[in-house]
Amino acid sequence: MEDPYDILGVARTATPDEIRKAYLRLAKKLHPDLNPGDKTSEGRFKEVASAYDLLSDAEKRRRFDAGEIDASGAQAPRDRYYRDYAAQGHPYESAAGYADFADTDDFVAEIFRRQMRRARGADLHYSLTVEFLEAINGATKRITLPEGGSLDVTIAPGLQQGQVLRLRGKGAPSPGEGETGDALVEISIRPHPFFTRHGDNIHLDLPVTFAEAVLGAEIKTPTPTGAVMLKAPKGSNTGTVLRLKGKGVPRADGNGDLLVKLKIMAPTEPNPELEAFLAAWAPANYQPRREMLP
Asked: Which GO terms describe its molecular function (predicted)?
């Protein structure tokens, strides 16, 4: 990095007032507000601001002169340039940081006032909980604002847990003449009683009877967009997974799939007829735990 004394054009013996005047002289010439679109002037102004930041601080200047720190003022990179001041909490973020300039130089004070007039309004943060199927299929929800009024939020199909929606121009007004801020809405999705999402696919455990699994059947099956008939092949079992294409999460190039896992359910109430049948049914070659036991 170039020597800060050389950047400001002052001697190493310069007084604080001489350093300050040198900075103001260069700022009037190079400030980006006076050179819109001029990347060369913008880059030079950053160097000037960085040099002044170091030399205007008595302790930093002493350490630099003693060789304890380099021209950047620190070992690790840090936010130094004018466009980053507001975002990173730089001392020139508020009017107080400009007080030493405003007292003696109307130009810098006017630059600050101009920036404050153009300052954008703050973003406002909200949270919104939606149902699982609303997140999959899309919906319009309304937020009641703490200060009164409401905000309509469009839930696009396929929205994900934790996604943040930006509603432009729905935040706080500018303190001056700048743009209104945005509303940032973080989405939380309630779990569904039987659907679960995995990426763009939706999983479903579907209870079936012994007869449906053994003989095969067409089974009325729920999907996020309504029930359809699912064909379970003959000889299905618990754990058999059937795929319903296009019945999953909407995406740009189509939909994911619905993966249906069959789950054979025995009757929970006593059934003498079924009990009598199973007691008499004992096929010799039916050993489901054959591979588990010696």
From this structure: unfolded protein binding
Q: What whole-number distance in Å separates Cα of residue 92 and Cα of residue 80?
A: 11
Range 124-189 has CATH code 1.10.260.40:
no
Sorting pLDDT into bands at 50, 70 and 90, what band is 2?
Answer: confident
- The residue whose two tokens read 């679960």 is 196
User: How far from the centroid of its chain's Cα atoms is residue 201's Cα?
Assistant: 22
- Given a contact cutoff of 8 angstroms between Cβ atoms, the answer to whether 210 and 266 are in contact is yes
DSSP, residue by residue, 212-253 = HHHH-EEEEE--TT--EEEEEPTT--TT-EEEETT-S-EETT
What's the residue count for the chain?
A: 294
**In this predicted structure, what is the pLDDT of residue 264?**
95
Diameter over CA atoms, the chain: 108
Residue 215, pLDDT > 90, answer yes
Q: What is the mean pLDDT of the chain?
A: 83
pLDDT of residue 293: 74
Q: Does domain 195-280 have CATH number 2.60.260.20?
A: yes
Residue with token string 């005047």 = 21
Selection from 120, 115, 108, 116 nearest residue 30 by Cα? 108
Residue 93: per-residue pLDDT: 41
Contacts of 232 (CB under 8 A, 6+ apart): 208, 212, 213, 216, 217, 218, 219, 240, 242, 262
CATH class of 4-117: mainly alpha
Q: Which residue has the higher pLDDT, 185 or 1?
A: 185
Chain CA centroid to CA 251, Å: 18
Does residue 232 or residue 112 have the better pLDDT? 232
Tens-place pLDDT, residues 53-63: 889 989 888 88
Give the separation between CA 255 and CA 144, rounded to whole angstroms.
Answer: 32
